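Entry 14. Ran structure prediction on the chain below.
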Amino acid sequence: MHIPLALYIHFPWCVQKCPYCDFNSHALRDTMPEEQYIQALIADWQQDLKWVGDREISTIFCGGGTPSLFSGNSLQQLLTTIAASVPLKKDVEITLEANPGTLETDSLEALRAAGINRLSIGAQSFQADKLRALGRIHGPEAIVQAMQLAKLAGFTRINLDLMYGLPQQTLDDALYDLQQACQLQPTHVSWYQLTLEPNTPFYRTPPPLPTEDEVIAIAEKGEAYLSAEGYQRYEISAYSQNNDHCRHNVNYWQYGDYIGIGAGAHGKITLKDGTIVRTVKKKHPKHYLEGNGFMQEETVVTHKDALFEFMLNALRLQDKISWTLLEQRSGWQRQAVFAYCDDLVQKGLMEYNEDYFYLTAMGKNFTNEAIAAFLP
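Output, structure tokens:
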């Protein structure tokens, strides 16, 4: 049984916390303990080496927070240590999330030297008033500059993160953002709807958002525009040119394995006997850095939860999903899953045969309902 193994590295600090963000990120109020945190990540990684076994790391994703606040030298030290301790896949994908305004020529060259070969730039919008409403600290011009500098530094795989359904956003506003993004020619676009997550300022005091009908129109017109520009949708919110998918995220969606290091990082590991273990590291940077161990929680995924988790991820993908993949990753046999699917087939949300299953066009509009059919 071969299940790809990835590594996620969490960097918990931002210059400023955005009002819509529910990720484990913390606004910098003092000097960032960069060296201390890198040493903690290395120690965390060394403790998690037991999960690797004889496997190689296929992708690495540096997320946050704002990983680009860390120096290229620090990231190089971390990645060099990781590469010296386990085999990395020959064409390993190493992604770094970065915010416009935190990227400079010297830092980008250092990131390339560190082995990072893919950037994900958090643009969110190309309109100054929308960026202010989202609490972003950059302007539209900083996005353009970041893309230009990244290409000059030799990055050929660049994702632009964009959001829609923004406060007081019109269809024209949303299409303008996509037009500006496509002019910069990223190889990948992540385009997702703003959602009001609990425990965020936006949830407590909702801004004026477009109506549901307006959001549907934006989603439909936006997908058509991206398609016309050569970006194929391969997941609910992910579009790529020439099949240049984010391999790290595809591994999540296909229920692959990943080790998570850093404050609040999650991991999922399949043991040789098929047992699936989930890990969570201590969430608050202060507690993570205290040095009393990094693990917050380690739990075994039940058989029923494994099916739900698989579907929660896989049904986000636009292509057909093979039963073989489900059997390998979740431990379920296809015949046992058919009964769950039959109700969705009757509702016109799913189709399946002996080899694969997939959501219909209507099913993709009701993905949450389809996923809910597999709740334990």
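The longest helix spans residues 212-228. Will compare against last week's run tomorrow.
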